[in-house]
Amino acid sequence: MRNYLILFGFVVSLNAFAATPQELIKQYESQAKQENTTFTSFSAERGAAFFKTERVHSDGKKVSCATCHTADPRNQGKTRANKVIEPMAVVANPKRFTDAAKVEKWFGRNCKDVLERACSAQEKGDYIQYLLSVK
Amino acid sequence: MKNWMQYLILVAGMTSAATLLASGGLEEEGGRQMPVVNNSKWQAECSGCHMLYHPGLLPEKSWSKMMNGLDKHFGENASLDAATRDEVTKFLAANSADKQDNRRSKRINQSIPADATPLRITETRYFTAKHDEVSAKTFKRKSIGSPSNCVACHKNAEKGDFSESQIKIPR
After folding, report:
1. What whole-number distance in Å separates Cα of residue A16 and Cα of residue A6?
2. What is the ipTM of this complex?
3. Torsion sign (Cα): B31, B134, A85, A47
4. What are the backbone dihedrals phi and psi of residue B81, each rounded to the nearest 5 degrees, phi first?
5. For B78, which of A82, A83, A109 is closest by C-beta distance?
6. Contacts (Cβ under 8 Å, ≥6 apart) of B60
7. CATH number belonging to domain A19-133
């Protein structure tokens, strides 16, 4: 009985972060509404622009999401340390946006690396919407 | 009879010499290669952006400094939640070069001056001396990228095995 309880607890904890991209979008939607009362819905077009728009980092280098992920999110990208990054587009990599903790961890890191600030819930939702829309 | 004895001694001598050679000669206790170590958080978190570096490649003071500055990790934000960071830091410290018995870790550690805390393995005297015959141009090859990409030439580097016989420099 005890073993079953442990196993049950394990399965539940595994599922705590498991999600679908749609569920994540819902979560970011309620956050976006709190952050901005005029928010209506996420936009794949805004997400696409966000993904590709370069800015000049304070270190003087031009940078965007596409710098590492490449301009076509169906492609594999490469980190600055030469490691392959699996595609961001869900059509090419169904595992994307299925782990809330992982998604938050990487938004947390990469928004600071690229934008030198945290991303808003609207930017995160737009980003996911775009990467879901790529066929 | 005398010849027979001499033959026996010769064979015995050759056998023990061969055994000694096969075992890698008169070794320090920990052997040449770093031991296989395991921690799932270390494996998952420290190989997201780069190859997995064995804790025996740097002393504890280096790992400690590195883990305290993950928000600026070689120019990138590699922050971890506090619990994960603490677990990984502990694991790195317990298996760091200054805690290792193997020859390579000991030599890396010995090559670092007492007042230095290098964050890059490639900056240690041990590394530069070992790689002095590899040109900067070779390191820049697309198949390699930079000197920090050990696995490009040492295929078992992530397991802590940098043995000479395993080296293959890609074109």
Report:
1. 15
2. 0.78
3. positive
4. -65, 155
5. A109
6. B92, B93, B96, B98, B99
7. 1.10.760.10
Instruction: Collect all residues of chain A within an 8 Å Cβ-Cβ radius of residue B145.
Output: 81-82
Helix (H) or strand (E) holding A84: strand A84-85
- Alpha-helical segments (H) within B53-167: 60-67, 82-94, 103-110, 125-130, 136-139
B40 touches chain A (CB under 8 A): no
State the pTM of this model.
0.81
All structural domains of chain B with their residue ranges: 33-166
C-beta separation of B128 from B139 below 8 A: no
Within 8 A by CB and 6+ apart from A30, the residues are: none
Q: Cα separation of B150 and B94, whole Å?
A: 22
pLDDT tens for A106-130 read 999 999 999 999 999 999 999 999 9
Reading the block at residue A4, the tokens are: 């079953």
Please count the other Cβ atoms lying within 10 Å of the Cβ belonging to residue A39: 16
Give the tokens for residue A40: 């209506």
Q: Does B78 touch chain A (CB under 8 A)?
A: yes
Q: How far apart are CA B124 and CA B110, in angstroms?
A: 10
β-strand partners of B63: none
**Domain boundary assignment for chain A:** 19-133
